Amino acid sequence: MKPISISKSDKITFRDFNEGNSVQVRVSVPENEVKTYVKGTSVKITHEGQEAAARIVSDPLIVSGTTGPGERLISLIVEKA
CA 2, CA 9: separation in Å to the nearest integer? Predict the structure, then answer.
């Protein structure tokens, strides 16, 4: 499973996710891995030491700009698996 971290400051998103709601997350990934984050892929959500299984329920959207050399920022909608 691919890891997706939810920041400490985004407690509301993690709470909503744990309550069974779909949530939108932004993930910085190496450019050559963008195509592996597709609808239906299983991922692991982490937040302050807690982990939960999730599934991507949307096609990834590439957000303009980059977070570093060779990286892309993508937006995904995930739900609890």
Answer: 21
Q: Is the Cβ–Cβ distance between 60 and 66 less than 8 Å?
A: no
Pairing mode, strands 2-5 and 61-63: unpaired
Condensed to tens digits (0 to 9), the pLDDT of residues 15-66 reads 999 999 999 999 999 989 999 999 999 999 999 999 999 999 999 999 977 6
Whole-number pLDDT of residue 45? 96
Give the bridge partners for 48, in sequence order.
none
Kindly calculate the radius of gyration of the chain based on its CA atoms and give it in whole angstroms.
12
For residue 59, what are its two tokens? Answer: 């096609």
Beta bridge partners of 76: 25
71, two tokens: 């990286």
- The SS3 call for residue 13 is helix
Location of structure tokens 């996710």: 17
The one-letter code for the residue type at 13 is: T
